[in-house]
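Q: Given only this backbone (831 positions), what sequence would you predict?
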């Protein structure tokens, strides 16, 4: 290769012997330096085998096959044209072919004709390179650790001349901890004979900016291997250091920012990450217009700029609310606005301009914009002067194309002013935080909607009834889990009975709360027609399956946290659990059925606690699987405890242990059921629950036998008169003579219908509860219904008459047929 241009003007090509050899060993290139070395002209050797130039073959270990080497170097014995032997140091480079079709490439072989031995001028080159090298700071120390030589870069970094430093130790030159560490490294190098490495971070003398240095301390040995001194080399790695710090800060931000779905805490996490590594003081302000939660739901803005999330302004000013701030100084004395407070930022001020333009801004405190801003706010101006602010950055908080607020970062302790790289880092941190803040804001709004919906769907107060005394608690999950679908209910039934219900819908959020409301409504509707517990759950199971089939649960998979007892049936499915119990204060019997729900607990009057052994039943929504009911006797004064699994199940709690704590809490004396509920929650939930908790505690009452009258009726129309007489007599004994007329008509109609249209046995029961209840039972499963009687019809007006004379009436199935009942209100003071 022939050198051309400026290189040729400087380099004497003839001082290097340059030869090229192809893959077959033939000489393909020969320069003037090669002719000077061996005496051959180019025409004498081109195309000939290179081997003819060797006076003797090199030793085998020194010359592996060329094809396996990228480079070879060593000494060769060559043959001069005049026949003498020439020893030459050779360096050979293997040049790979440009393409497979080009063959195996070639070798470039070079050998220097001059400079083989050191020259006197070389010592001057060494000295000049040492003193003038700009690559690093160099200093030589003797074995007494006293400086002997220092180069120009070392002189610049210490702002001292070599003469100023000669004879001094490192700690005497650098009067800080880094000097002591460097001397310790020197001692270690002298003792071990090995180099020592360290990174230091200190301010270069005469400069405001701090520098990071990579320092190497190495022993200097003479030809005999004796240590003669120490060399200290320091490379300025400030840019690499800050780049690494920025990456570490971004990684730390990813780990710490957004740990919760709380706006204030997320903003504070950003502040804690940025101080002190990036700024000495930081404030995070959000648009005051976001307080109502109705701004900033849109998508991206137009024209490449973020959308303004709300006016938030008074006149030409921008109103911002302080969400969080942080400082390197205790107590954050730089702040001119307290957390939660608002401030007006005038038009043209850096924060206002960042919000309005959607761009980050970098300013010195002497810039006109900042001076004018401070002049309009005396307190802020005083803070700037008192703490010596020297540079500021304002970065808009932008998420999903919407501007939510602004981050203001200030330096006063850190000597370096903010640079463009700092602004890029601040934008990265603000972008991460803005998304988390927007998520938290949206979640807070949705959670508030769900809480409002849920509370409107749960019982506002429990209904009056005499069968049980009840107390309840509903405890929502922590903020991260969100509002769930747990519910409870107390439903008065006919015959002085009461239904107790507890249920749990899978998932969290508005969908869970809405579905809970639908299921609660369905349970009350099914309870109104007096279905037995197992049949009621069967109908409820069909409803849940239809909800899933209609796609009402299609968004639930992303909302489910797995904390509820309900189960996700399939992708997009709806699942729930439920326990339904009916207690009869007359018979003191309770009928229960459950659909995948935790077992209820019964506490007998003597304090014995046990779980009710109920068939489990599948969760609601599976469809086609049967539910089984069980009956238990509950003496008066027994406690029946129903709950959702948030009370006993969590990631950190063993279910058996939680059930044991529940049972123990139920045995402790309590002044009231409300106190007992609080005691149970305190014993089973030492921390805020991760899932919603519904708890319903009922103490059973019994209806005295003197308030119930029963007659078996012969299937003969003639028996109706006797039945009316017995009923009127019983009312007289109860002091309900005012209700005798209506009761006589109701008894007559219901008993007559049973004798005529139903099957025996027929039975009449009067119950004196808070109302007067008349019940007629028979063995027919056919339910009666009202019909419109024409003017010439002889019958058909009985049930219409019953409906007009009583407050409520209905029919319910029984194990042997049905019961038709009617209720009349009676004076509350009646015994």
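A: Predicted residues:
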């Amino acid at each position: 290769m022939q050198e051309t241009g400026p290189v040729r003007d400087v380099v004497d090509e003839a001082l290097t012997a340059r030869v090229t050899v192809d893959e077959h060993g033939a000489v393909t290139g020969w320069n003037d330096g090669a002719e000077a070395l061996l005496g051959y002209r180019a025409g004498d050797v081109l195309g000939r085998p290179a081997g003819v130039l060797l006076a003797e073959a090199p030793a085998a270990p020194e010359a592996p096959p060329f094809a396996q080497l990228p480079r070879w170097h060593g000494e060769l014995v060559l043959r001069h044209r005049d026949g003498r032997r020439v020893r030459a140091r050779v360096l050979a480079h293997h040049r790979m072919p440009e393409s497979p079709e080009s063959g195996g490439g070639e070798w470039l072989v070079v050998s220097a004709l001059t400079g083989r031995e050191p020259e006197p001028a070389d010592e001057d080159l060494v000295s000049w390179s040492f003193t003038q090298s700009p690559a690093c700071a160099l200093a030589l120390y003797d074995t007494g650790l006293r400086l002997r030589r220092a180069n120009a870069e070392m002189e610049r970094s210490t702002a001292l001349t070599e003469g100023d430093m000669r004879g001094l130790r490192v700690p005497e030159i650098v009067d800080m901890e880094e000097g002591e560490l460097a001397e310790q490294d020197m001692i270690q190098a002298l003792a071990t004979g090995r180099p020592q490495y360290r990174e230091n971070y200190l301010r270069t003398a005469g400069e405001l900016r701090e520098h990071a240095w990579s320092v190497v301390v190495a022993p200097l040995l003479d030809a005999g291997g004796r240590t003669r001194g120490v060399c200290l080399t320091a490379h300025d790695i400030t840019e690499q250091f800050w780049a690494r710090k920025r990456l570490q800060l971004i990684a730390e931000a990813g780990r710490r920012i957004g740990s919760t779905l709380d706006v204030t805490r997320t903003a504070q996490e950003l502040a804690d990450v940025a101080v002190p590594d990036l700024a000495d003081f930081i404030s995070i302000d959000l648009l005051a217009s976001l307080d109502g939660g109705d701004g900033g739901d849109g998508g991206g803005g137009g024209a490449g700029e973020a959308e303004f999330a709300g006016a938030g302004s008074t006149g030409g000013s921008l109103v911002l609310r302080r969400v969080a701030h942080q400082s390197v100084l205790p107590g954050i004395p730089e702040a001119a606005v307290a957390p939660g407070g608002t401030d007006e930022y005038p038009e043209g001020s850096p924060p206002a301009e960042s919000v309005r333009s959607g761009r980050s801004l970098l300013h010195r405190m002497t810039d006109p914009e900042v001076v004018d801003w401070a002049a309009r706010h005396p307190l802020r101006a005083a803070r700037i002067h008192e703490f010596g602010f020297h540079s500021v950055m304002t970065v808009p908080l932008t998420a999903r194309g919407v501007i939510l607020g602004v981050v203001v970062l200030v330096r006063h302790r850190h000597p370096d002013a903010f640079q463009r790289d700092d602004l890029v880092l601040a934008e990265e941190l603000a972008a991460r935080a803005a998304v988390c803040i927007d998520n938290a804001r949206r979640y807070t709004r949705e959670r508030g909607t769900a809480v409002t919906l849920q509370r409107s769907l749960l019982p506002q107060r429990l209904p009056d009834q005499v069968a049980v005394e009840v107390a309840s608690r509903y405890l929502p999950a922590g903020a991260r889990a969100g509002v769930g679908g747990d519910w409870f209910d107390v439903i008065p039934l006919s015959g002085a009975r009461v239904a107790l219900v507890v249920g749990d819908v899978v998932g969290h959020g508005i969908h869970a709360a809405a579905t809970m409301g639908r299921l609660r409504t369905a349970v009350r509707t099914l309870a109104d027609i007096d279905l037995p517990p197992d049949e009621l759950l069967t109908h409820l199971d069909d409803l849940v399956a239809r909800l899933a089939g209609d796609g009402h649960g299609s968004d639930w998979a992303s909302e489910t946290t797995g904390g509820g007892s309900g189960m996700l049936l399939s992708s997009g499915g709806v699942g729930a659990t439920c326990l339904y119990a009916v207690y009869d204060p007359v018979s003191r019997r309770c009928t229960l059925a459950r659909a995948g729900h935790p077992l209820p607990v019964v506490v007998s009057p003597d304090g014995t606690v046990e779980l009710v052994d109920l068939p489990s039943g599948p969760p609601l929504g599976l469809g086609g699987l049967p539910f089984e009911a069980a009956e238990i006797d509950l003496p008066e004064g027994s406690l029946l405890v129903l709950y959702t699994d948030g009370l006993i199940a969590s990631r950190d709690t063993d279910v058996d242990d939680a059930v044991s704590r529940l049972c123990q809490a139920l045995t402790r004396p309590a002044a009231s059921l409300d106190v007992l509920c609080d005691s149970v929650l305190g014993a089973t939930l030492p921390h805020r629950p991760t899932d919603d908790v519904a708890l319903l505690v009922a103490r059973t009452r019994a209806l005295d036998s003197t308030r119930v009258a029963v007659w078996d009726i012969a299937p003969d129309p003639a028996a109706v008169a006797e039945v009316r007489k017995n009923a009127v007599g019983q009312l007289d004994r109860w002091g309900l003579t005012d209700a005798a007329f209506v009761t006589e008509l109701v008894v007559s109609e219901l008993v007559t219908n049973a004798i005529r249209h139903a099957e025996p046995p027929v039975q009449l029961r009067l119950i004196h509860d808070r109302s007067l209840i008349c019940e007629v039972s028979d063995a027919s499963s056919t339910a009666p219904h009202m019909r419109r009687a024409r003017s010439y019809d002889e019958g058909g007006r009985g049930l219409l008459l019953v409906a007009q004379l009583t407050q409520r009436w209905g029919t319910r199935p029984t194990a042997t047929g049905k019961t038709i009942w009617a209720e009349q209100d009676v004076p509350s003071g009646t015994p």
